[in-house]
Specification:
Layout (H helix, E strand, L loop, with lengths): L1 E8 L8 E4 L15 H11 L29 E9 L11 E9 L4 E5 L2 E3 L1 H8 L14 H9 L2 H12 L2 H31 L1
Antiparallel strand pairs: 1-2, 1-3, 3-4, 4-5, 5-6
Subcellular location: Cytoplasm
Family: Belongs to the SMC family.
Function: Required for chromosome condensation and partitioning.
């Protein structure tokens, strides 16, 4: 799975439709203070289902809609689309390209689409579950978070790295398997007891 494009329109400082195409390798976004770099990251978090206006530096969700500037009127709609190359079907979808869209109107109406089909927030969350790209994942680390990670205890930092590396779900599977093994051992002991009694 690879991030291909991000289209932003009417979201925060991006009044006009802006399309960012991500090439192979590392992409850096540079620009002067206040030019909208963080807004791009917030657009990604928003389209992936972010529900906290506070975490998007607002007080209510409609604050993400372009609020106007010195020479431009406010807009009534914010829309962000993110497209992933899903040729490896890393995302549980039959499509080899997955495009997720979120839109919000100033009157509060909103919606999500996956490849042009209306869907619920729950569908989006399920689509990205266990991919490391979910709402609460560490794939996107904001400025304040970096400091928090540096200052965290080694055990906490280890669990962050494990989650990013996708080890967490295997650890859970291992715990489950060990519990089942324990149960099976107990059943075996019981069967052996019964056999011993019968002999
Ligand atoms: P820095 O380098 O200082 O972190 P940045 O490049 O990350 O800055 P952002 O924080 O992404 O910049 O953008 C801030 C700009 O976005 C501000 O000028 C702010 O007025 C504008 N902005 C935020 N929300 C809206 C909105 N709803 N409508 C219009 N402009 C907005």
């Amino acid at each position: 799975m690879k991030l291909k494009t991000l289209e932003i329109s009417g979201f925060k400082s991006f009044a006009d439709k802006t399309k960012i195409e991500f090439m192979s390798g590392l992409t850096g976004i540079v620009g002067p203070n206040g030019s909208g770099k963080s807004n791009i990251i917030e657009a990604i978090r928003w389209v992936l289902g972010e529900q906290s206006a506070k975490d998007l530096r607002g007080t209510k969700m409609t604050d993400v809609i372009f609020a106007g500037s010195a020479n431009r009127k406010p807009l009534n709609r914010a829309e962000v689309s993110i497209t992933f190359d899903n040729a490896d079907h890393y995302l549980k979808s039959d499509f080899s390209e997955v495009k997720v869209t979120r839109r919000l109107f100033r009157n509060g109406e909103s919606g999500y689409l996956v490849n042009g089909q209306d869907c619920r927030l729950r569908d989006i969350l399920e689509l990205f579950m266990d991919t490391g790209l979910g709402r609460e994942s560490f794939s996107i680390i904001s400025q304040g978070r970096v400091e928090a990670i540096f200052n965290s205890k080694p055990e906490d930092r280890r669990s962050i790295i494990e989650e990013v590396a996708g080890v967490y779900k295997y650890k859970q599977n291992k715990d489950k398997a060990q519990k089942e093994l324990g149960n099976t051992r107990e059943y075996l002991n019981r069967v052996n007891d019964i056999i011993a009694e019968l002999e």
